[in-house]
Amino acid sequence: MSLYCRPFLAMNPSLRCNDIHSKLNPTRVAEVLFPQDEDDVIRAVVEAKNQRRAISICGGRHAMGGQQFGEDTLLLDMTGLDFVKPVDRVHGTVEVGCGIQWPALLAALHAQQEGEETVWTIRQKQTGADNLTIGGALAANIHGRGLRMKPFVDDIECFRIVDAEGVPHHCSRTENEKLFALAIGGYGCFGIVTAITLRLSPRIKLQRIVEVTTLDLLPDTIRERIGRGCLYGDFQFSIDEQSDDFLWKGVLSSYRPVSGDPVIPTSQTVLNATKWQELVTLAHHDRKKAFQTYADYYLSTHGQLYYSDIHQLSMYVNDYHEQLNRDARPACQASEMITELYVPHDHLISFMKEAATLLRSRGVAVIYGTMRLIRKDSVSFLSWAQSDFACVIFNLHTEHSEEGIAQAAQVFQSLIDLAISFQGSYFLTYHRWARRDQIEAAHPNFAAFLSEKLRLDPQERFQSNWWRHHRDLFSLFSNR
């Protein structure tokens, strides 16, 4: 019997896939399988090898850079591997399936430890959306809004990965350490991660501190907040390009531990789906009011209490742009595209001033913008946090026309050039619009990364549109 007819591998009737956020990655795959455990994954890889078929790997389907789909590949949807094993309360770790998503993981951790004085929980997650898999977080080496945290590699104790031959491996900092470093931030190029052991932290209560401030005051304020023990924080800057405050004024939110065991009220102010959609709509039509509305909302939450894990969850409405498209009736569809840029702390103010000038001159709407901090990552092979950086995120409105996409690509390339001019870098995850010279400048070992991929997977069993794009951009020989 063919593997693809086995009942544990349900078929997806739709073979045309796309990412959830930008919807700029339409890809027709050959088949979609839903493995339920590692044995299913091994059988799928072995049969794909025997049939000389390429495999792509997806989870929450939010990635915008083409890492999760490949034209005419066998797509493995990993969301069925969603187990959570018992928490190791001695070492503060837990083994989870690669397909578990953040809300389900938190629910499982809380349920397991109900009534315990110390509850072990996650350290960080990416913001913006919650229904993302832990396997995807590993593949992109994500980060959250920790003020003194390294990327997600620092939260990973070990993992299991199935290679191109269908052989599983245990990887850690001391066992198969090179594969460990390659796969974290490796975008699925080196195999299928099935299980991940996470390093946890005790769950604590935090108080949110909110103020509206300006970029020139931000460095000293952040240092003061860290000195007061704040663990998380971010700076949401003004997106009104008509204002002198554009990219300069912003809402600084930080979170500090509270002493004792205060009760968290159930009546606290929250941003529900309706308010979130209204805020996004304002950002498209009245960015001055959007920023003021956002600032007013956050200021109203000053002093509120949160758990250290729950406060990292975010409101996100799937297909939110469909409503905007219907209301505006544009000539073509549109969505937002994200880029994330890194600059040394000392260059942040100069970078933001020049970025404001650049974005105004291009006439592209910034729908959302935020700033965070990251500590240097010395473990992952394709480390994007090559130094302690300020992380600057721009979410740009992008029309789905040839002209609109070209305009967004040109703006993103210009922003990358700007970051590089300040000894900075950019995140590879969100798009494939960087030029080769930009990739080489921002990620000096990228060519070596591609070579390692072909060394460990010479038949290119694991493929994606992201991999194919960069393989061709660097003119690497393909064995397929």
UniProtKB/TrEMBL annotation:
The keyword Kinase does not apply. InterPro entries: FAD-bd_PCMH, FAD-bd_PCMH-like_sf, FAD-bd_PCMH_sub1, FAD-bd_PCMH_sub2, FAD-linked_Oxase-like_C, FAD_lactone_oxidase-like, Oxid_FAD_bind_N. Pfam families: FAD_binding_4. The chain crosses the membrane at residues 179-198. The keyword Transmembrane applies. Residues 24-203 form the FAD-binding PCMH-type domain. GO terms for molecular function: FAD binding; oxidoreductase activity, acting on the CH-OH group of donors, oxygen as acceptor. SUPFAM superfamilies: FAD-binding/transporter-associated domain-like (SSF56176), FAD-linked oxidases, C-terminal domain (SSF55103). PROSITE patterns: FAD_PCMH. Keywords: FAD, Flavoprotein, Membrane, Transmembrane, Transmembrane helix. Gene3D superfamilies: 3.30.465.10, Uridine Diphospho-n-acetylenolpyruvylglucosamine Reductase, domain 2. PANTHER family: D-ARABINONO-1,4-LACTONE OXIDASE, L-GULONOLACTONE OXIDASE. This is FAD-binding protein. It comes from Roseibacillus persicicus.
